[in-house]
From TrEMBL:
UniProt domain PABS: residue ranges: 124-361
Protein's recorded name: Spermine synthase
Record's keyword terms, sorted: Polyamine biosynthesis, Transferase
The organism's place on the tree of life at top rank: Eukaryota
Similarity comment: family membership: Belongs to the spermidine/spermine synthase family.
Keyword Calcium carried by entry: no
Catalytic site: 276
Length: 362
């Protein structure tokens, strides 16, 4: 069973909300239109706010609750929520309801969000790092566990095969090879050394090993991610996660940031360093601690790269230009002399074009 939540919003002239007579008329108009499609609509609470707005709560048949809210800015919202496996209204009925309310109250703008299915055993909604909510055709939840580090899920979808989800954020699907390919930047890795920060899904490691590198070190903090990707996402990782030590690679279960620090102290070098950890924040104003971490990783990585060595990183989607600009600023302010290039690719299950950077130590 689930909650099915329909959201509608409208814009009217502000004086309609702040004028008591006009506001009362608006209440009646919305109530009339909604009551025609929601059986048994009964007003429970009416709050007239000191700011000039209002908030009204209704109950109805079939365990349904409805709220109206008017803000002094002229924004009006309607929320209809019922409990059960069947929607109170089908999608077309919701669209038609939006049209009727918009016409009745004389709104110059209206929008309907089709019913959200909340509380189901199989969750269809996941976040992206650039603050979008995506709905997938999820067929089943294959794995679900909260580890000491994060909430790890593997789900199977109609469109993208299996998807790795971390803390509710979409991470990687079986149809996202273009992500790994673009992160690798078209380089020739034969005979080279590489360090992967994160990368627990094994996709990057798998593709690097196909090019006969000298040695690849991967550092992933959450062994559960490795274990479940090895079990359920072999289309991504192949057999490279079957053992932690190979002829030319090693998987370390540990803190990638600490490994970087230790590597600087011990004088290690790598031809390539891949950042395959958390995405950067959506703008310079968000999560300065994470931005500071990105800065520290960049600086430590430059200490581990020889001249001509490269730092390869995914960053963010094209719809977050401030984040991309902030990353470029951090690179340009590095003490080491560098040059940078970028590339982008449409990642199927992200439903967006993602941006990647290649930073070369001069």
């Amino acid at each position: 069973m689930s909650f099915n939540t329909t959201l509608l919003d409208f814009s009217v002239a502000p004086e309609i909300i702040t004028n008591p007579v006009a506001s009362a008329t608006l209440h009646q108009q919305v109530e009339e239109v909604v009551g025609a499609v929601v059986p048994g609509l009964t007003r429970l609470i009416e709050d007239l706010l000191p700011s000039g707005g209002f908030h009204m709560t209704y109950t109805a048949e079939n365990e349904t609750f409805v709220t109206f809210r008017g803000h002094r800015s002229g924004l009006v919202s309607v929320q209809i929520e019922n409990y059960g496996e069947t929607f109170l209204m089908e999608n077309r009925a919701v669209v038609e309801l939006e049209k009727r309310i918009r016409a009745k109250i004389g709104a110059h703008r209206g929008k309907a969000i089709l019913p959200l299915k909340r509380g189901r055993d199989i969750d269809s909604y996941f976040y992206t790092s650039d603050e979008r909510l995506l709905e997938y055709g999820v067929l089943e939840t294959i794995f679900d566990e909260v580890t000491p580090y994060q909430h790890v899920q593997v789900v199977r979808t109609r469109d993208f095969g299996k998807i790795l989800v971390l803390d509710g954020f979409h991470n990687m699907s079986e149809k996202d090879f273009i992500y790994t390919e673009t992160l690798m930047g078209g380089e020739n890795y034969e005979g080279k050394t590489a360090l992967i920060l994160g990368g627990g899904d094994g996709g990057l490691l798998c593709e690097l090993l196909k090019q006969n590198p000298k040695f690849v070190t991967m550092v992933e903090i959450d062994e559960v991610v490795i274990r479940e990707c090895r079990k359920h996402l072999r289309a991504i990782c192949g057999d490279c996660l079957d053992k932690f030590d190979g002829d030319n690679y090693k998987i370390i279960v540990g803190d990638a940031f600490q490994y970087l620090k230790d590597s600087v102290q011990e004088g290690r070098t790598f031809d390539y360093i891949f950042y395959d950890l958390s995405d950067v924040p959506v703008s310079p104003r968000h999560d300065r601690d994470l931005w500071n971490m990105v800065k520290d990783v960049l600086q430590d990585s430059m200490s581990l790269l020889p001249a001509g060595g490269k730092y390869m990183s995914h960053v963010m989607g094209v719809n977050c230009p401030e984040a991309l600009e902030e990353f470029e600023r951090l690179v340009d302010e590095l003490p080491a002399k560098t040059s940078r290039t970028s590339s982008s690719a449409y990642v199927p299950s992200f439903m967006e074009t993602w941006v990647f950077y290649q930073v070369t130590k001069c």
